[in-house]
Amino acid sequence: MKRTIRPVLAVLAVLLAASIVPEQASAQDRLKLSTIVIDPGHGGHDPGCISADKKTREKNVALDIAQRLSRKIGESLPGVKTVLTRSDDTFVTLSGRADIANDLGADLFISIHVNAQAKGTSANGYSIHCLGQSSREGNDLFSKNLDLIKRENSVILLEDDYKTRYQGFDPSDPQSYILFSLVQNAHLEHSLVFAEDVANAMKGGPIPHNRGVSQDPFWVLWRTTMPAVLVEVGFMTNANDLKALRSPEDRDKIAENLLKAIKTFKKRYDNSMSTSSAPESATKPEAAPETKPAAQPDPKPETGKVSEPAGVVYGVQVLATSKKMKPTDAFFKGYTPVEVRSGKLYKYILVAGEDLAAVRKKKKELDKKFPGCFLVSKDVETVTRIP
Fold this sequence. Notes:
Elements: H1 2-18, E1 35-40, H2 58-76, E2 81-84, H3 94-104, E3 108-115, E4 126-131, H4 146-153, H5 162-165, H6 178-181, H7 188-201, E5 210-216, H8 219-222, E6 228-235, H9 239-246, H10 248-272, E7 312-321, E8 338-342, E9 345-353, H11 356-369, E10 374-379, E11 382-385
Parallel strand pairs: 1-2, 1-3, 3-6, 4-5
Antiparallel strand pairs: 4-6, 7-9, 7-10, 8-9, 10-11
Helix pairs in contact: 2-10, 7-10
């Protein structure tokens, strides 16, 4: 196990450092969901799932749905830019797909795939996956989707020089997945919200059965630094699902339902980014009252309870997770977090204080340590993201 995990942990630090989203857009542009990256799974010499009669391949179905979805977004959401990780039958590495989204500073990442049953043909329906571990009590990382996770991550083995690129990560070895328990996603909340939007939008569609939303350790989701989901639109191994996947009309309906989910999510996302949620201008911050300085990070983690500043404060959210964290967890790198419970999620906020300008300054330091972190305002139990 040590021979596998140590090199994986070594590459972890490198990949996290490389995942920082560049400041390419203005503050006003970042107020709305404006860039979506659509990722058609597989491609080139990686066909993905293949039907029993060898006539239908996952890579072609995924690309067709992705292209239809991109066109529909362009027609109905003119203010939203869409980028495909591949626009033809070419092979793109898993890390390369995530890099495209990260380099663009995308607001949403959607990876489209087709499922397959290892044995039998009874399994059917669509499912949506976010990064993480199972949120069900008593379940381990692989309790529900191990075969699916292994298959989607096994694309790594088709890449040139994959042993160097992924530093010992073995997609067929459950021990390698300890990596994913060490990495948390600051955008988990938005990812879960969008996943539910997709699940609801696809109900009653060409493939009607909803298998639900799961948190699973897919490499391509782990590498992205924005809300991200992986959608398995149906089963190649099920006769009814396959019939729909082969139909251009049904693939178009699937794309239309995905568009419906995006529209629902965009309204909520844009509202959460509204400047009305913060007492400052989006383009030129006003000077904050010089009352109290921002709380400084404690170089020695406290061993007691998480801190709970009173009143309205600002901070930097670095994590949203279904797992309750200890304030002394190594993930927080010596900072003392503020913990806020939001439904089934725990949100963790650093450098909380009443001086917004000071918190903004601290965020620049945290960007390198916590890629994907963002500014929030906290009023009692409500946390609102601000630009």
